[in-house]
Design brief:
With about 475 residues, the chain is an alpha+beta fold. It folds into 3 domains: about 100 residues, Immunoglobulin-like, CATH 2.60.40; about 170 residues, no CATH class; about 140 residues, no CATH class. It has 4 helices and 25 strands. Strands 1, 3, 6, 7, 9, 10 and 11 form a 7-stranded mixed β-sheet that branches. Strands 13-14-16-17-18-20-19 form a 7-stranded mixed barrel. Strands 22-23-21-24-25 form a 5-stranded antiparallel β-sheet. The longest helix has 18 residues.
Length: about 475
């Protein structure tokens, strides 16, 4: 048998034995004698399975189990360094689900580390830098990158003294897919991250960090101390918005470590203050409304006004057959739509900002169908026909019939009092909760470039953008 045939045979055996069993999950899962934790001294880990006669295989590199990267468990394992153990039990062609243990070794300089904030450790077990896409002003041609497997451990504050400590079992240990997020902010020394909670099969699963409602999608946001020495530019606005009835995202402050180079966690990995922030998303605990029906007649939708969406990880065509980013503009004051679908804006079409586009978020632009898209764009055509008509102030049939006026007023006030130079240009959201609902402005988002002017500078900053000039 030549080497190529032998390699092919071994690969087939590996896949059939470890990932293609006839009945995955009928065998009891492998149990770990040690819970996920940080540690200073060597530990002994025992693996077991309650199913009689089960063979346990394990790996130490965090990748899917195969014959090539796994070993048969025969005796307790000594854990000396930062290690990710994945294990699976099998009997004949039946196997258990995969289970994992995560153990982070602490260098001497962090063993007594404590903080008045919860401590976050983002650990990727030596895979190197978290992957990041490129960026440009419009987003055109930017290719999204795949998420990297990782883990976060959260150490909450002690009930008695309000202090969190690193050398203990975490209050939460969660498996993640992570990548750098943002455009210009992705170039900062401290990177913001997009986090998606995963199960052992790399599928989304909901988690509840530090008491916030369960969801799979989260943002790790580091306030940029170069321009925001308070570290509060965004978060106090989110709190202020929520306090006056806005649907702002919840958050929790943490003191973070980002460990990507393998070995022991040390003070070299200390990353300072990071905020765990809810991603803007249609969800029962965030923006709570039913999804848009296939015919576009029922349910609601969420849009972003921002740079165009990146090319998806898998490239084109996408699920809906798209071969380019999907977005649109509206006709604006002259009621003459000069911009073709998915093209840069022209004339007085809205948005007028050269790097701003109305992107589909829910449904996503790479999943939306023609009927759904027609329903959304058709609504804006009807709304603008009224907004730019002579009877737009009519209290019954004018713009108030289409807009949630309070949300538009509140959004502008919060933008204006902070002198948000990015405000009403990019990084915005609008959503509609159902066929009879009115359009809401928000949630508030992205105040990194706010607070640059004095209290006596001109009011109504960027007041000519979107529909605000007419309003």
């Amino acid at each position: 048998m030549n080497l190529c045939r032998l390699a092919s045979l071994l690969l087939l055996i590996s896949l059939s034995c470890l990932q293609g069993q006839d009945a995955v999950g009928t065998i009891a899962p492998v149990e770990f004698s040690l819970r996920d934790q940080t540690f200073a001294e060597s530990m002994v880990l025992e693996l077991s399975c309650s199913t009689e006669g089960a063979v346990i295989r394990y790996s130490t590199d965090g990748n899917p189990l195969t014959l090539f990267n796994s070993a048969v468990y025969t005796k307790p394992l000594t854990i000396n360094g930062t290690t990710w153990i994945r294990a699976q039990a099998s009997v004949s062609k039946e196997s258990s689900v995969i289970t994992s243990g995560h153990y982070i070794h602490l260098a001497e300089d962090v063993r007594d580390f404590e903080s008045p904030l919860p401590i976050l450790v983002l650990e990727n077990f030596g895979q190197g830098r978290v992957p990041s896409k490129d960026w440009n002003q419009t987003g055109a041609g930017v290719q999204q990158v795949a998420r990297q497997r990782a883990q976060w451990c959260l150490f909450d504050r002690d009930d008695e003294d309000g202090i969190s400590r690193l050398q203990r079992e975490p209050n939460q240990s969660a498996r993640l897919g992570v990548r750098v997020r943002g455009a210009f902010s992705s170039s900062f020394p401290r990177k913001p991250f997009s986090v998606e909670a995963w199960d052992e099969e790399d599928q989304e699963t909901a988690i509840k960090p530090l008491g916030m409602p369960k969801e799979s999608d989260w943002v790790l946001y580091p306030p940029n101390a170069v321009q925001d020495r308070t570290l509060l530019y965004n978060t106090w606005l989110y709190d202020l918005s929520r306090s006056i009835g806005g649907n702002a995202m919840r958050f929790r402050f943490t003191e973070a470590f980002v460990h990507t180079d393998g070995g022991s966690l040390s003070m070299d990995d200390h990353a300072g203050v990071y905020v765990i922030l809810e991603k803007v998303k249609r969800d029962g605990n965030r923006l709570d409304f039913p999804q848009l029906s296939e015919d576009g007649k029922e349910g609601g939708w969420l849009l972003s006004i921002n740079r165009m969406d990146p090319i998806p990880v898998g490239g084109y065509p996408t699920a809906n057959g798209a071969t380019e980013p999907q977005f649109f503009h509206t006709a604006g004051p002259n009621r003459n739509l000069q911009t073709s679908p998915n093209q840069a804006g022209r004339g007085d079409d809205i948005p007028r900002q050269g790097n701003a586009f109305i992107n589909f978020e829910s449904p996503n632009g790479y999943a939306i169908n023609e009927a759904q898209r027609d329903a959304i764009e058709g609504w804006f055509e009807t709304f603008e026909d009224v907004l730019y008509s002579n009877h737009f102030r009519d209290p019954v049939n004018g713009y108030r019939r289409y807009l949630n006026v309070d949300s538009f007023v509140d959004y502008f006030i919060l933008h204006d009092i902070t002198r948000n130079t990015d405000g009403l240009l990019i990084s915005m959201w609008v959503y509609k909760e159902g066929p009879e609902a009115k359009l809401k402005m928000g949630p508030v988002w992205d105040y990194d470039l706010a607070y640059k002017s004095t209290a006596t500078s001109s009011l109504a900053i960027n007041r000519d953008r979107l529909w605000y000039a007419r309003l």
